């Protein structure tokens, strides 16, 4: 394993850090949205956007007219942050409260994908992350739609994860008759809601 | 209403932007975690952290030993991003897929809260955001815990929201026999799980 560069080493709870690709990939594949941070005129900006991981890269897309996309595609250094919250950790004191979370931070510069078949592949990965197995069912993508959309890729080379799991570790207060434990949080997909335009069209098998 | 500064005006879908405090507050009060972005040595950083809004400010806290807290408390310009995802918008084409979301972006510089009673108030707001009505039940906070924790406040003066709701607006493909609509997403709290240290201690009323 390569040495971990200092900007990937957390100053707090370094034991929570993880650099193995399986841990990082699992977080990236579950989260739908990341936050892209960059600096313009010495001012920090942070923009949420959908993304997909494929092999060793993260892909985002946006309109060719998007200010944010046009700025970062010049090759600005970026930091991408992804966070999943799994539970509220309720201790016997306010001080020891915490959150169980899984997060990834990634540093890099964007690589603009210009090759049309490769762009279309990225659209398929993105679409099927949000709606698995749906690509072949949809109206096929058009050349002008590909042209109107920028795709940027970011290498996972400088990615790291940070994970907290488990209970409070509230040992100093263990004899107090105050309840402690966790409140798990769950994000789930509810039943699809048909819009008026699609009244009478059956749900496709991949959405049942 | 004051004129909207250019960095708060989205380049895409300006109709989705909202600047009224009620819209902004509702998003900030529902989200548990924000992403704090800042620039160090021309490199962008993005760190997720819990936060609470109280009146016209956002409050975050962290260990006095945290590298990130020690850097930004010097008065670095920051950008805070908060995102809630409400639904996946499934169109008849991949191109028109979208996400219903509510997001807030805020620019500012941190104000360090030094006053001890004011710091304790901020801890109470933070704690009761995550676990409502729990403060008086917990082991009281200690002076050294207050001393070991930095509290930073950020004004909402330069905050803006961006919201997408509704269906696809898939008019160009409306005659295609392809299903479209939304898949709502829901994040919920599950039943509290008691840890070993608290075996036999009844759940307090605010957690029932």
From TrEMBL, chains A, B:
Sorted alphabetically, which Pfam families does this protein's record hold? Answer: Pyridox_ox_2
**Highest taxon of source:** Bacteria
Please name the InterPro entries in this protein's record: Pyridox_Oxase-rel, Split_barrel_FMN-bd
Q: Where is the signal peptide?
A: none
Report the protein name in the record.
Answer: Pyridoxamine 5'-phosphate oxidase family protein
């Amino acid at each position: 394993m390569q040495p971990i560069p200092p900007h990937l080493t957390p100053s707090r709870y370094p034991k929570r850090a993880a650099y193995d690709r399986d841990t990082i990939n699992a977080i990236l594949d579950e989260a739908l949205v990341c936050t892209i941070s960059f600096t313009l005129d010495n001012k920090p900006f942070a923009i949420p956007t959908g993304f997909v991981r494929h092999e060793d890269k993260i892909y985002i897309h946006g309109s060719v007219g998007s200010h944010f996309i046009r700025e970062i595609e010049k090759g600005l250094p970026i930091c991408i942050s992804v966070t999943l919250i799994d539970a509220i950790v309720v201790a016997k004191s306010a001080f020891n409260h915490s959150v169980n979370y899984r997060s990834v931070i990634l540093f890099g510069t964007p690589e603009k994908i210009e090759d049309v078949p490769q762009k279309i592949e990225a659209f398929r990965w993105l679409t099927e992350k949000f709606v698995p197995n749906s690509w072949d069912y949809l109206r096929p993508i058009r050349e002008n739609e590909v042209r109107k959309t920028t795709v940027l890729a970011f290498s996972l080379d400088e990615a790291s994860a940070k994970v907290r799991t488990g209970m409070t570790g509230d040992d100093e207060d263990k004899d107090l008759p105050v309840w402690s434990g966790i409140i798990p949080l769950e994000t789930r997909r509810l039943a699809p809601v048909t819009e008026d335009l699609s009244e009478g069209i059956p749900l496709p098998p991949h959405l049942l």
